[in-house]
Every structure is written in structure tokens, then in C-alpha cells.
């Protein structure tokens, strides 16, 4: 079953994520705003990855002096999606 969610990140340049995952594997992530090329690259790399692996790899990454980053916010969104599946 495909689980989908929209997530509004906090403290970063990107404005919204739409995430779809099936059976704990990321199918797609669409990102609105932020560094277009970098975020398209991250979304492409995450496609086909287990949600739990993506969370582990990206949690806690910061951007400059900010306490978070787009990857960290994606990990937070994936954690919410994962909890919704339980």
C-alpha cells in the first residue's frame, strides 16, 4: 500500500515536500522551493531507499549556522510518515 504525505519544513529554504512510500521504501519525493538542483539530486538518490535508512543518513545534518537543513527536514518528514504507517 502506498502512503503519501505533505510536509511543511521549518527553518529551511524549501517550502513543502510531497512524499510517497510503499512498504517502507521511498517511491518519490517532490520538493517545492530551496536549492533546485541539489534537492532534485537528493530526491533522486532517495528513490528506492528504505525509509529507515534515509532517516538514519540524513537526521541531524545542519546547513551553515542553522540547527537543521533540507535533508534533516526530509528525515523528520519520513519519520512522521513511518509513524503514520505503524
Q: Explain this structure to me?
A:
- This protein has 3 helices and 3 strands; from the N terminus they run βββααα.
- With 86 residues, it is an alpha+beta fold.
- The chain has one domain: Enolase-like, domain 1 (2-Layer Sandwich).
- A 3-stranded antiparallel β-sheet has the order 1-2-3.
- A hairpin with a 2-residue loop joins β2 (14-22) and β3 (25-33).
- The longest helix has 16 residues, at 70-85.
Task: Outline the secondary-structure elements.
Layout: E1 2-7, E2 14-22, E3 25-33, H1 36-46, H2 51-58, H3 70-85
Antiparallel strand pairs: 1-2, 2-3
Helix pairs in contact: 2-3
| Helical proportion, percent range | 40-55%
Q: What is the CATH architecture term?
A: 2-Layer Sandwich
Looking at CATH, which topology would you report? Enolase-like, domain 1
Report the strand count: 3
End-to-end span in angstroms?
13 Å
- Shape, per Cα inertia axes: globular
Provide the spatial order of strands within the biggest beta sheet.
1-2-3
Residue stretches low in confidence (pLDDT < 50, at least 5 long) are: none
The CATH class label is: Alpha Beta
- Mean pLDDT rating: 95
The structural domain count equals 1
Oligomer state of the chains in this structure: single chain
Radius of gyration: 12 Å
**What composes the largest sheet?**
3 strands, antiparallel
Q: Work out the strand percent.
A: 25-35%
State the helix count: 3
Provide the succession of SSEs.
EEEHHH
